[in-house]
Amino acid sequence: MNTSQISAPPTVALIASGDLRTSANEVCWAAQQEMEKALAKAVQNCGFKLKRAHQPKRGAQHGFIDSQKKGMEVFASIDPEMPIIVAEAVWQYSHHVLPGLLTHRGPILTVANWSGQWPGLVGMLNLNGSLTKAGVKFSTLWAEDFSDNKFIKKLNTWLATGKVRHATAHVIPIRKINMPSSCEATGQKLASELQTQKAIMGVFDEGCMGMFNAIIPDHLLNPTGVFKERLSQSALYYESTQVTDGEADGVRNWMENKGMKFDIGKQHAKHLTDKQVRLQCKMYIAAVRIADDFGCDTIGIQYQQGLKDLMPASDLVEGTLNNQTRPPVKSRDGKHTLYRGQPLPHFNEVDECAGLDGLMTYRIHKTLKQPVENTLHDLRWGDWDQSGTTDQYVWVFLISGSVPPAHLIGGWNGATSYRQPAMYFPNGGGTIQGISKPGEIVWSRIFVANNRLHMDIGRAGVVRLPASETQRRLDATTPQWPIMHAVTYGVSRDQMMARHQSNHIQVAYAHTAEKADQAALTKASMAKHLGMVVNLCGKKADGSGWGD
Fold it and tell me: 3-state DSSP call for residue 477?
């Protein structure tokens, strides 16, 4: 046979978006290489060749696209008609690759590993949400094992057609929902109140960690009655320096009197120190005072870029703000307690979609006399329970900040503050770590698609797992962070991955399953009357559908 007549297999380009922080890229590089090797083999088995479109820079300890500029340079050398796979084994900054993907004409596939330690699925979900907002057509796949027959079948489909689809029959448009009249009326009333009386969203620097999907354009946000007050983290830093040591120590004393523990050490680079905690308590007071200055109804602190070089992590601040029972903060003249008896809803990582959701949730649950504390979590990972406690698939909802102690078993007494991992948090700072209490929750997500606000709403239960199983899950992810063991009703793992348009998911408790259903339906009504495209997902706790 004349080997020169044998055509080479068709080529697919591979790119890998990474972190902006070099330390994170270097730590995660080995996991990315392992993933790319397995993915290349899977593509080869399908009769194609996977070729990396960018190589590590000379002297670099990783091969990620680590800036928007780098991403533009990489895409300048890629055939715009070529099939391209964005492979993610780690957290990534979507804006590094978004400019190139916006103008790419060939088929696009986002692929993630399925790992708690290496959260590629978290990074991929953020990129997916960003592409959806930008109107870019793409397909997506994920797998624990890239040699799995189910993954290979779908990969083959994409390679042959440029498209792969997933079942999303669990998503029910609101027009098909049997909406109780009381929920409809309450939702409409709350929507009207927000639009007429209006609210202010305090944004401490926009665009955290490249999360394009987390920014709501003003022309979509303002019709809901919410307007941004654009604040600077430099103002938060300055205001923190104006808080006295005595005021900050008073915040910590209040927490410790409620039973919270601080895992204190002496080495700044390795441990949570008293100085770090004091600075966090100063930031807490500063955040409340600035929010009051501008009349904010909800605030979001970016933290990661800029402030991380000046201050400890904002996570202790965020979770405390989201709790109804929290250390009192006096006005600067000491005459008034600010936001007395209420949380100041905070949206972690300035995710404005979560901020709007959190504000709505607070008002809905307050009206319905349900727990008002709510937070976002990362849709971090999931696994089948290995303890035999439940035969349901159990998600690991996990986030570094924003979780209120009211969500934890034991409340403040069940919370421990651990130092943040140095890879992401050079100046340390403590978390509010604990295990979320068993109960009924409403989950939701606001996202942007087709130049409109959308909202998906569903129900879930938080289950109690044995300490050994909880520890296994913490060790497989980030043990310093608060964890929620969630079972989504009527929504499988793959259905959630196929539909969810963010790395973040909003959650709030209700006293009973019936009250949680009521809260979910009221939220759907409120969102509809605010002009959103609304879907309810999955089923109720009793197994009945939303349209029943």
Answer: coil
Strand stretches in 29-95, DSSP E: 49-52, 84-88
Contact by Cβ (8 Å): 87, 127: no
| Domain 7-161 of CATH type 1.10.540.10 | no
Q: Which residue has the tokens 């009192």?
A: 328
CATH homologous superfamily, domain 175-537 = L-fucose/L-arabinose isomerase, C-terminal (3.20.14.10)
Cβ 379 vs Cβ 524: under 8 Å: no
CA-nearest of 253, 309, 318, 258 to 291 is: 318
Q: Flag whether pLDDT at 35 surpasses 70.
A: yes
Torsion of CA 322, 328, 330, 331, to 10 degrees: 20
Query: For the packed helices 181-197 and 513-529, what is the interaxial angle rounded to 10 degrees?
Result: 50
Could you tell me the pLDDT band of residue 5, with boundaries at 50, 70 and 90?
Answer: low
Q: How far apart are CA 36 and CA 89, in angstroms?
A: 9
Nearest partner of 498 among 170, 172, 87, 90, judged by Cα: 170
Give pLDDT tens digits for 302-347: 988 789 899 999 999 999 999 999 999 999 999 999 999 999 999 9
The type of residue at 197 is Q
Q: Could you give phi then psi for residue 338, rounded to 5 degrees? A: -85, 135
Give the tens place of pLDDT for each residue, 458-483. Answer: 999 999 999 999 999 999 999 999 99
Q: Is residue 320 within 8 Å of 326, Cβ to Cβ? A: yes
Using left for φ > 0, alpha for ψ between -120 and 50, and beta otherwise, residue 264 falls in beta
- Residues 457, 535 contacting (CB under 8 angstroms): yes
Q: Which are the contacts of 154, defined by CB distance < 8 A and separation ≥ 6?
A: 141, 164
Rounded Cα gap, residues 158 and 5, in angstroms: 27
Label the pairing between strands 261-262 and 226-231.
Answer: unpaired
Question: Taking a C-beta distance cutoff of 8 angstroms, is the pair 381, 476 a contact?
Answer: yes
Burial 391-430 (b: 16+ CB within 10 A, else e): eebbbbbbbbbbbbbbbbeebbebbbbbbbbeebbbbbbb
Contact 14, 33 (CB under 8 A): no
Nearest partner of 229 among 210, 207, 213, 206, judged by Cα: 206
For the chain, domain boundaries: 7-161, 175-537
Q: Report how far apart the first and last C-alpha atoms of the chain are (Å, whole number).
A: 66
Q: What is the pTM of this model?
A: 0.96
